[in-house]
Structure formats: C-alpha cells, structure tokens
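Reference record
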Amino acid sequence: MNSTQAGRLISFSGIDGAGKSTQIGALRDALSSRGWKVAQVAFWDDAAILSRFRAGVSLRLLANSNRSEGADLRNDKNVRAWYLTLIRSAFYLLDAFHLRVVVGRQMRSGAHFIILDRWSYDQLVHIKSRNWLARTYIKAVFTLAPSPDVAFVLDASPHDAFQRKREYPLAFLHEYRQEFLALRSFVPRMQIISPGSIDEVHRRILESAVDQSVRSCDNSVNQSPESSIAQ
C-alpha cells in the first residue's frame, strides 16, 4: 500500500487484556473528529474463516477449568500440540487471504483509515518454532495478508492484563507476551507501545504514527479537486 494514499491500514495486536479495544476506540474517535472516514475490522469476526465453528470446537475440546488460578480459564490458545499447529496453520493461510479480500472491500468503500483489531501477527505468535520451515511459512502468511502501514503491539504487564481480563492462565500470558515481542525480528518496523496509563498510551500512539498518517492523507486529499470530506 502506498503510504501517500488514503486507505491507510493500522493494526493493533497484543495479549488479551492489553487494552486494544480501548485504544482502538480512542484512535477511531481521534481520526473521525478530523473528518476522516474510518472503518474498523475485527479479525476474528470479519476475516477468520469459519470462526464460530473453530471457536466452538476449541472450547468443547480444549477448554478446562484451571482451579490453581482461582477461576475457570480457557485452555485453547495455550494448547500447542503438533497436530493442532498443523490444522491451525492451514486456517491461518486462509485467514490471511480472506483478510486481503476484507481490507480491499473497505478500501473500495472509500475509507481513509482501516483499523484492524488484531492481524495475522496474533496468529503467528502461536508458531513457536523458528526453523527454516517455520520462517518460510511466516513469510508466506505475510505475502498473502495485506501489510499494515502502521503496526502496533500494545505491550502490557501480564499480571495487570490478567487482572483486567481473567481469561487465560497467567503463566501463558507471560509466554504469550514474549512471543509478541519476538515478532519484531520478522517485522522491524512494528511499533511496541510500552505500558502506561490510558491517556499516556493514547498520546504515544498519536505522536508516533497517527498524526503522520493524517498529514500524509491530508496531502493526498488536498491534491484532489474533490477534497471535501463528508462529516
């Protein structure tokens, strides 16, 4: 995607409880207040193939109660048996291709910004092996999926994230966080947003990427004879 054109793609990734929904809402409001048309894509709801079927199967086959944490916790993402990795890997390729279709549809609708609530990054963290086959596979997913113009990973203390959203075991969240941080070796331009207050994180996001995106789109729109934007 040409960064000087409208239809910029911004993705948010991170562990459960990192505050993605809050920051996505703040970003959407900030862009909309400038008069830009903003579209939002929820990866699991809008792009993942057979998402309800997959979620149902995972919960039925893998979910369990982890009483050691004092709550009923999910046990699907954190189960990484080899045969599950193979099945998931096939779906991840299909998801990446469908994500390209979904994003293309939003671009044709005239959206100036498309915000992705999770991207293929959030699936690739489950591919733990870094051998040549795994690296080849990850690159194939990157080729199929649209490349974000701005890719955020919201970092968070696993303990704080667990307190906000008691869904997965705390030990898994620690491992999950490290896998997200390690993705930067594949995507050097990925921006890791360190933990902070809601307002502080929002400010950092605006300063590091959004304002630059707005200026780029401003230049593109102003060059067009039809530069007015419907509120």
Remarks:
- Confidence is low (pLDDT under 50) at residues 64-71, 220-231.
